[in-house]
Amino acid sequence: MSNHEHQDSKHQSAQRNEMSRRQFLSYTLGGTTAFMVGGAVLPMVRFAVDPLLAKGSANELVKVIEESKVTNEPQEVKFTINQVDGWYKSKSEKVAWISKDASGNVFALSPVCKHLGCTVFWNTHGKNEYDCPCHDARYSIDGKNLAVANAPLDEYQVAVQDGYVYLGGIIPNTRA
Amino acid sequence: MFKTIYNWIDERLDITPLWRDVADHEVPEHVNPAHHFSAFVYCFGGLTFFITVIQILSGMFLTMYYVPDIINAYASVDYLQHQIPFGKIVRGMHHFGASLVIVMMFLHTLRVFFTGSYKAPREMNWVVGMLIFFIMLGLGFTGYLLPWDNKAYFATKVGVEIAASVPYIGPYIADFLYGGDIVGAQTLTRFFAIHVFFLPGALIAMLAAHFIMIRRQGISGPL
CB pairs below 8 Å between A and B: how many? Predict the structure, then answer.
C-alpha cells in the first residue's frame, strides 16, 4: 500500500485536497467491518433484550368470591391464574385481601409489601392495619403506607358482575 | 476522542507493542489473494476461526433461553426459535455455522496437506490442528443432542453405539457418555456440560497454541 501512496503524491496537484487513498481504504474497510459485525451482533443483542421489549400479557379476570360475602373487614382470598413464563405454562396461586369501603365499593389489595416484597397480613398486631413480618412495615386498610415502606400496597383490578367479584391484573393503588 | 482515550491508556500501560505484535505483520506475497488469486486457499484457516468466533458468540446467546432438561429442552428451543425475535437467525447461525466450521476446517486441512506445510519444523502445529479437528467433531456430536428432538435422540444413540463397539473399553465409553443405561436426562446434562464448558475450554487452549506456533514459525514458503 505504501508504494501506491508514493506514486499518488507525485501525481497530485497542489490544489487537490481530497481524501487520500489510504484514508478512503480505511473508511471502506472500517465501514464494511462495522456492517458485518453489526449484522452478526445486532440479531443476538435483540434476541437477548427481548424480555425488555416484550409487552406484559393482559390478565384475564378471575372469579374469586360472591359479592355478598365481602365485608368491611378485609379477608384473604386465593385464586389461580394461568401463568405463561416463556415456554413454561403453569397455574399460579395469587392472594388478594378484599373488602368494601364505607360507600360499599369492593376493592382488593395485593399483599406484596412495597418495601422489599415480603407478604403482609391483615391485623396480626390487632391494630386494624396490614403488617409485614419482615421489617415491620404497616399499611392502613386502604393500603396507605404508614411505616417503613415508601409506597402504598398495589391493588387488583376489580370487576363486579352478576353478584360475583372478579379480579384482574395488578394496578397502582388508587385509594391511598 | 478515542485517540485521546487510547493515548491516555498507552502512556500508562504501553499497550501499542501488545496489539502490534498480534495484528501488525507482513502478509507474504504467495499467500495474498491480491497478488495471486489462487492464494485464496490460504484463507480457510482464518475463515474457520471467524466462524468459530460466531459459534462461541451465538452459543452464548442461545444459553440465555436453552435449558438442558428432558422436559424443557425441546420446548425452550422451540420457544427461542419461534417466539423470540431473531431467534431463527441466532439459532440458524449456530446450526449452519456448525456445518460450515467443519467444511472450512476440512478445506484448511487439505490446503496444509497439499502445500506440505505440515513438514518440519511445523509438525507440532499439525498435531495440534488434528486435536482441534477432533475437538470440533466432539462439539458437533455433543451439540447435536441438545435440541432433544427425534433426530438428536437417534443420532446420539447411533453415535454412542459406535463408540461402544471399541474393543474392551467400548462398554465403559458408552456408560460414560450415557451417564447411565439410556439416552436420557443424565445424557443430556452431560452432553450440555461437555458442549458448553469442557470442549470450548480445550478448544480455546488449542487455538492459542495453534496461533502462537504459526506466529513463531511463520507461514510456510511458496511451493
Answer: 40
Residue A26 CB neighbours (<10 A): 12
Chain A, window 141-170: residues with a beta carbon less than 8 angstroms from a chain B beta carbon: none
Smallest Cα distance from A24 to chain B, Å: 18
B79 touches chain A (CB under 8 A): yes
Segments in chain A below pLDDT 70: 1-16, 56-58
Q: What is the DSSP letter of A72?
A: S
- Spell B105-127 as b/e; 16+ CB within 10 A means b: bebbbebbeebebbeeebeebbe
The complex's ipTM works out to 0.83
- Kindly determine whether residue A47 and residue B85, on different chains, have CB atoms separated by under 8 Å: yes
Query: Which 3 state secondary structure label does DSSP give B120?
Result: coil
Using a CB–CB cutoff of 8 Å, tell me whether A46 touches chain B: yes
B130-186 confidence digits (pLDDT tens): 999 999 999 999 999 999 999 999 999 999 999 999 999 999 999 999 998 899 999
